[in-house]
Amino acid sequence: MNPVFNQHISIDFPNDISLTIKREDLIHPFVSGNKFRKLKYNLLQAKAENKETLLTFGGAFSNHIAAVAFAGKEQGFKTIGIIRGDELFDKIEENPTLKFAQENGMQFEFVSREEYRLKSETSYIEKLKDKFGDFYLVPEGGTNELAVKGCEEILTDEDSVFNYVCCAVGTCGTISGLINSAKENQKILGFPALKGDFLSDEIRIFAKKDNWNLISDYHFGGYGKINLELIEFINGFFEETKVPLDPIYTGKMVFGVIDLINKNYFPAHSKILLIHTGGLQGIEGMNIKLKQKKLPILKKND
């Protein structure tokens, strides 16, 4: 585990607002950001239960799939990934995420989108146990109570100087941990990466406080959707700050926060902390798609 640090963003914002980003993306070279936090206690629990295999779910470019494959190998587990999209069966070599996971020992089961929707059904999990034997189940995106416990460790006492803490929202584990560990003076703002009004209910399963708000205007059309405006923003932000952003989660959140600053959403003198949840491994796969669409590619290094 590498030390995480807070990086001040040296951009002049109106109303004396300051922006700082917590570089969780640097926590581990392959299990970065919130994936490290979410897996920490789940892997300990799997060992406590004497499990030898981890089974989880994810899509074609899933940060979670890549992280579970590497962490599982590092910790001595076999790993199985139930992958959404049976058309991907013969496209592993073309897909940087799946190729990485396979190189780290993950066994794949490609399923239709219809079957994938059964991932939370007890009967479907039992069917998978009949096929693969006993395993430790890590939910899609890694979110469960142990994941939230890990994400509660993101904020430190030194972060109490910030009025607002902002993060992207996917399966709600990260924001729930931040909500639970925030100080009384802090408001947690979540920026959903996907469309839908169901996320608030998901957060309430794990969150113990009401110090939060979801801002749903910056998903750019839905999960995995991206346009020229977002590409140019991410690349411009990297050129100015040397902080790479992923286009699925953190890039949309940072875009949203800066847009809200310019729209006077935040009170004057606000100190805002952005949580960089990693996900940079997905840029390579996204760039393949962008080239196909003849759009500029995303930068993540000089």
Automatic annotation (TrEMBL):
InterPro entries from the UniProt entry: ACCD_DCysDesulf, TrpB-like_PALP, TrpB-like_PALP_sf
Highest taxon listed in the record's lineage: Bacteria
Species of origin: Flavobacterium panici
Sequence similarity: Belongs to the ACC deaminase/D-cysteine desulfhydrase family.
Matches recorded under SUPFAM superfamilies: Tryptophan synthase beta subunit-like PLP-dependent enzymes
Keyword Transferase: no
Keyword annotations from UniProtKB, A to Z: Pyridoxal phosphate
Name of the featured protein: 1-aminocyclopropane-1-carboxylate deaminase/D-cysteine desulfhydrase
One Gene Ontology term of the molecular function aspect: D-cysteine desulfhydrase activity
Cited Gene3D superfamilies: 3.40.50.1100
Chain positions with N6-(pyridoxal phosphate)lysine modification: 35
Matching PANTHER family: 1-AMINOCYCLOPROPANE-1-CARBOXYLATE DEAMINASE-RELATED
CC cofactor: pyridoxal 5'-phosphate
Pfam families: PALP
Spans traversing the lipid bilayer: none
Domain Tryptophan synthase beta chain-like PALP stretches: 18-278
Active-site feature positions: 62
Signal peptide boundaries: none
